[in-house]
């Protein structure tokens, strides 16, 4: 799929669009209604960026998720519901324009090769930490996640038991997919999800994820029973 050099950017507080994840959105602001109409008439792509924390103006973070509109339902009042599928991480270059909605140039962020043995060990550690979460009775709210390609498996429903979810993770095509899926499903802190999104190196990404999961388990263990 050929990616554009410039895309519309939707800036949302606490929002993270990971590659291959499906993000449901409700479009109601006039500027984003215009954006959606233009997107649907074009390549059906736009980026979702988290708003910079503490910014008095609506300013996007530098790394965003580029998505493809898979389905859109327009309502009589001009609002719309849509499903956006994450395609890839992108770096936003300076804005091309701000009105009626933001348009930025983009640069695709590709993961460099890394140590297969080290990455495999980190994936095993992530799996073990998820198993500990299940033992504590913590939820694993599966995101709506699309896994195209060989060996990707099917998307499990949210009601799957822990052993089946772990088995599903074992059959994901790449460690990068494991890192993104688990981060999307488990990390409730927006800054942590954004950190994972911004980390292009898969080994470093998994290291961050392990650290976040360990910290969450410590917090859960300290809660009164």
Structure in a nutshell:
With 225 residues, the protein is α+β, with helices and mostly antiparallel strands. It has helices at 30-40, 116-135, 162-170, 175-186, 190-198, 202-222; strands at 6-12, 22-27, 45-50, 63-74, 80-97, 103-108.
Structure report:
There is one protein chain. With 225 residues, this protein is α+β, with helices and mostly antiparallel strands. The protein folds into 2 domains: 6-108, Archaeosine Trna-guanine Transglycosylase, Chain: A, domain 4; 116-222, Methane Monooxygenase Hydroxylase, Chain G, domain 1 (Up-down Bundle). The protein has helices at 30-40, 116-135, 162-170, 175-186, 190-198, 202-222; strands at 6-12, 22-27, 45-50, 63-74, 80-97, 103-108. It has a 5-stranded mixed barrel with strand order 1-3-4-5-6. A hairpin with a 5-residue loop joins strand 5 (80-97) and strand 6 (103-108). The longest helix has 21 residues, at 202-222. Residues 144-159 have low confidence and may be disordered.
């Amino acid at each position: 799929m050929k990616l554009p050099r410039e895309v519309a950017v939707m800036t949302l507080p606490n929002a993270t669009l990971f590659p291959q994840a499906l993000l449901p959105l409700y479009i109601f602001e006039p500027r984003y209604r215009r954006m959606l109409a233009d997107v649907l008439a074009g390549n059906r792509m736009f980026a979702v960026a988290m708003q910079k924390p503490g910014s008095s103006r609506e300013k996007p973070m530098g790394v965003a998720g580029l998505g493809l509109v898979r389905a859109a339902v327009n309502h009589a009042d001009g609002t719309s519901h849509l499903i956006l599928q994450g395609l890839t991480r992108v770096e936003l270059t300076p804005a091309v324009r701000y009105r009626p909605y933001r348009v930025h140039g983009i640069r695709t962020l590709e993961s460099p090769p890394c140590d297969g043995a080290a990455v495999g060990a980190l994936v095993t550690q992530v799996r073990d930490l998820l198993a500990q979460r299940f033992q504590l009775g913590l939820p694993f709210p599966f995101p709506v996640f699309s896994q195209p390609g060989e060996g990707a498996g099917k998307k499990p429903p949210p009601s799957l038991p822990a052993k089946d979810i772990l088995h599903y993770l074992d059959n994901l095509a790449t460690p990068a997919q494991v890192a993104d899926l688990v981060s999307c499903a488990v990390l409730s802190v927006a800054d942590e999800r954004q950190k994972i999104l911004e980390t292009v190196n898969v080994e470093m990404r998994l290291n961050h994820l392990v650290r976040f999961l360990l910290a969450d388990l410590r917090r859960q263990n300290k809660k009164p029973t």
